[in-house]
Structure formats: C-alpha cells, structure tokens
Design goal:
Number of helices: 15
Helix content: 25-40%
Shape: globular
Strand content: 15-25%
Strand order of the largest sheet: 1-8-3-2-12-19-18
Number of domains: 1
Mean pLDDT: 88
Low-confidence stretches: 1-25, 423-435
Distance between the termini: 36 Å
CATH architecture: 3-Layer(bba) Sandwich
Length: about 425
C-alpha cells in the first residue's frame, strides 16, 4: 500500500482545564505545526511542550520510519541536550558499540582499517532507534498525524491556515518545517528546492540485510573507483546494514517515490562490482527499510519567513559526510523552542534570535564535510590506493588524537543558554496533560 493509500492515524491530546498563574506565550502564538516526525521534529515538540506551547506533528509516512544510518552525537553540546531531555540514558542503552571499519579487497582480505576512535562520535545509535526514543518521549503530550502531508500554507496577520493532502484544513499560529532535505514546507514558503539544495554528485542507498558475514560490532567495506559498498552489524549483531555510496554527477533526476527505479539505479551502478556486492544487491528488493537519495547540502540565507521557520536538514543540511547532522538537529530544536519561550511567543524576535545563535555553529559543522567525498568515494585507482595507505598509517601517526579533538571542538562550538526557568514558568499554564 502506498503512502497515498494509507489512512490517517490521529492521536488527540486530552483537554485539561487549568488556571493561568504566570506569564504565558502570546495567546495567538501557542499552536505550532511541525512537519516531519524524524529527529528534529519530535525533539522540537519535546521542548515546545515543556515551555507551554501546543505542538502538532504531521508526517507523510504511515508510521515512524524504520532503518537509516547509524548517527553520531559528538561533544558536550550534543550530549547535554540529550541529558536535559532525559533521554541520554536511553540513547546510551541503544548505542551500537561499533568497532573499526575494515577495508577489504575483492577476495575479502583486509587491506586497511578506519579506526573507530578517530572518526566515530562519542555516542552512536541507529537513526530508527533514536526516532523511537524521541517518539516515546513526546507521544503523550504531542498530537501526531501520520499518513498526511502539508499541501498549502496561507498566512495572514493572525496565523497560518494549513491545507493537507488528506485531512481537513486547520489553523495554527506557527509552522516549522523539520521535513528534511526535500522539505515540503521550504518549497511552499521559500520556493523551489533548486535554489537551496546543492548536490555533491554522490548518491547513497542503505537497507537492512542478514548478517551473513557474521560481523561482531564491526564493518567491512570495499572500495573501487567511484563506488563504495559497506556492510556493518546492527542490533547486537542480529542483522546488518548494507550501505552504498557512488558517484553519479550527471545522473538524471529520479523519482523520489519510485522505489523500483531507485533500486535499478543502484543495481546498474554496481554491476560487476565484485566482493559481496551481488549478494547484497539480491537482498535489496525485499528490504522493508530501503532508502535512497542524492547526497546534498542545504544552504539558506534565512531559515524563517513570517510565521514559518525551518529546522534541521530542511534549513541547513551539512550532508551525512559531516557526521554532524543529527547533533545539529537536536541542538537546533533546543534553541528554537528556547528562543520562542524567551520571547514569550513573539515569533519575529524568536526566529531572528534562533538564527543568530545557530548560524556560525551550523557553518562550522558543515565544513566538516569539506573534501570528505573524495576520500569516501575516490575517483580513480590511485586515489583509492592513497586512501588505503592513509588508513594504514593513521594508528601510528602522532597527530591522530588531534583529528578527533578538532571534530569535538567543532561540535562544542556553541554556548547553549539555559532556558529552563522561563520554560518551567510557562509550563505551569497547562500542567502535565496539556490544554
């Protein structure tokens, strides 16, 4: 059944009448529609509820999306937000505990190794597991609407009338697009994505497959000019993730909703590739969590327009090559909600302050992706050989620790305000059940 055929799944938040005791957000700016139930959207909903706002999340998929990459949190800034949300222990319990990634030749013999302690974050978790943790932390106090998507936005002086693909129109005070690189909200409020989405020339596919190599918290990768295929164990070695990165700078535009076409693109790109590639490709059609897209960066001068704001990859995607996207999403959610609380719901003040706080931090994190594509998917045999030599030498060079330290400094290059007292005051308005 396609997404278009899926029924809507709505969860209505119970009404609890309470008496206002302290200053609350501006009455006209309390309801917030968030597009996207991935990582940034639920993280924002958590903080908005804490500060007394009433978030609704709409998600095109019929349920939470499973699968996806292993994602990293790096440094105190990322971890402190998880701790303030009360989910750090849960994220730690679900972390992957991955070891090194061994690069092999066509016969499966190891030729080099990428050390886990240099490039991995402080905490790594599968994206689907993180999504479930965030959903569990928000589902009792946030309205989730699955199987629907925003079709149109009509803003006026008092709010935004939102039309949906399936549901009836509804009225909200503010709208936030946390709906990824191909953001619907961004297209509706800012214009076509071509102006903001910048392809790197790489494509990627990932899906779950049996752990037929018997990997134990480890990975194997096979590198040929213009192509990388890797497999790493997941969920305590009970399964594995197959990952494909390949160069296709002149590839025609693909239909993002045509799974069969996407799989044909991957199969053509890896025809005759060798190693375990054919076996992994054979498992691709039956993978329920297959994902495919171009690897693209998003760059914008402004993340807000009127009553609409963008968050996470919709606003600033640094590409998965940076290793910073998920951490940026949760930090950005904390700052956006906190600034709305600090401004007592004044969106013009809050949105401007949100970008002021985050902009330099986002730019610094995005720079972590500079040049990574040439290392991840070398364009010729010499460059592939050069990459292997560097990985062989890396454990022995005296500056190895500086690489990890530099990445951590970038991840920590933001001073997070404590919005807590203001949030606590606002939350008294509605109490634990919402209004």
């Amino acid at each position: 059944m396609t997404n278009e055929q899926q029924p809507q799944h709505r969860r209505t938040i119970p009404t609890v009448q309470t008496t206002p005791t302290r200053k609350t957000p501006k009455t006209e700016n309390r309801t917030v529609l968030i597009s996207g139930a991935g990582i940034a959207g639920p993280a924002l909903a958590y903080w908005l509820r804490k500060y007394g706002f009433r978030p609704t999340i709409v998600e095109r998929a019929p349920a939470l999306r499973e699968g996806g990459y292993a994602v990293d949190f790096r440094g105190e800034a990322h971890l402190s937000v998880l701790e303030r949300m009360g989910i750090l222990a849960g994220v730690r319990a679900a972390q992957t505990h991955m070891g090194a990634m061994a690069y092999v030749n066509s016969a499966g013999r190891e030729v080099s190794r990428m050390p886990a302690d240099v490039f991995s974050g402080d905490l790594e978790i599968l994206r689907g597991d993180l999504g479930r943790i965030l959903h569990d932390a928000t589902k009792e106090r946030t309205e989730y609407v699955f199987g629907d998507s925003i079709a149109a936005l009509a803003e006026d002086a008092d709010g935004v009338t939102v039309s949906f693909e399936r549901g009836e129109p509804r009225r909200f005070d503010l709208v936030v697009g946390a709906d990824g690189v191909h953001s619907t909200v961004r297209s509706l409020a800012f214009g076509p994505e071509d102006a903001y989405v910048h392809p790197t020339g790489l494509y990627s596919a990932i899906f779950t497959t049996p752990n037929h190599l018997g990997l134990d918290h480890a990975g194997r990768a096979y590198l040929t000019p213009g192509r990388l295929v890797a497999v790493y164990s997941a969920r305590n070695n009970t399964e594995a993730k197959a990952v494909f990165y390949f160069a296709a700078p002149d590839a025609p535009g693909h239909d993002r909703h045509d799974r069969a076409e996407q799989q044909r693109i991957v199969s053509r790109a890896y025809a005759g590739n060798g190693w375990e590639t054919e076996r992994l490709l054979a498992a691709m059609p039956s993978a329920a969590d297959f994902w495919f897209d171009s690897i693209s960066a998003v760059r914008m001068d402004s993340w807000s327009r009127g009553r609409v704001a963008l968050l996470g990859d919709a606003a600033w995607c640094p590409t998965p090559l940076s290793g910073m996207g998920t951490g940026l999403a949760v930090v950005g959610a904390y700052v956006l909600a906190g600034e709305l609380a600090a401004a007592d719901g004044d969106h013009l003040v809050a949105f401007a302050r949100y970008q002021e706080v985050m902009d330099e931090y986002v730019r610094g994190c995005a720079k972590q992706a500079d040049g990574v594509a040439n290392w991840m998917v070398p364009g010729n045999r010499f460059m592939a050989w050069f990459v292997h030599q560097n990985y062989r030498l890396l454990p022995y060079v005296p500056w190895k620790g500086r690489i990890a330290a530099s990445i951590r400094r970038t991840a920590n290059a933001i001073d997070l305000a404590d919005y807590g007292p203001r949030g606590s005051a606002l939350a008294e308005r509605d109490g634990p059940g919402g209004r």
